[in-house]
Amino acid sequence: MENNYPKYVTREVMYTLAEKLNLPEPDEFSQDWQYEVANTSRIDEFLFFYENGQLECDEKFALMIVVISSFNDLLSEKGMECTIWEQIKRNLVSDSEIHMNTILYWSRLEEELEDSWEITPYMREVLNLVNFQ
After folding, report:
1. What is the Cα–Cα distance from 92 to 102, expressed in whole angstroms?
2. Helical H runs in the chain?
3. For an engineered disulfide with 55, which of 4, 6, 59, 71 has Cβ 3.0 to 4.6 Å away?
C-alpha cells in the first residue's frame, strides 16, 4: 500500500522555517537540520507557531520533527512534562496523515523500549490512537 505521507524535510522548508522562527539556517552539509535546531526552551514557541502559523503541510511535517526532538531532549533532561506532551499528542493525532512517517520513526517498533528513545513509549501511544481511529 503506497501512501503520500511526507518522508523528508526539504531544503526549501528548512530555509523557510529558519527565517520564520529565527533558527540557524542549514549549511551545505546539513542533513539533520531538524534535529540540530531542536531546543527544549522553545517547545512552547514551536507549538504555538505550529498551531497558529498558517503552515503548509511540509512545514508542519518539518516543524513537528523539531518539536518531537526537542521534547525527547526535555524528557532526557527533566522527565515528563504532561501539559506539553498532551498538546504534542493532540497535534500528532489531528494531523496524523502528515506525521505518520514521523510517528512510526520515533515509535521504533522493531526495538525493545529499553533500546529506544525517551519519547518512544509516548509515540507508540500516539500510533495506537491513530491506528484505531
Report:
1. 9
2. 11-21, 33-36, 43-52, 57-78, 82-94, 96-107, 120-131
3. 59
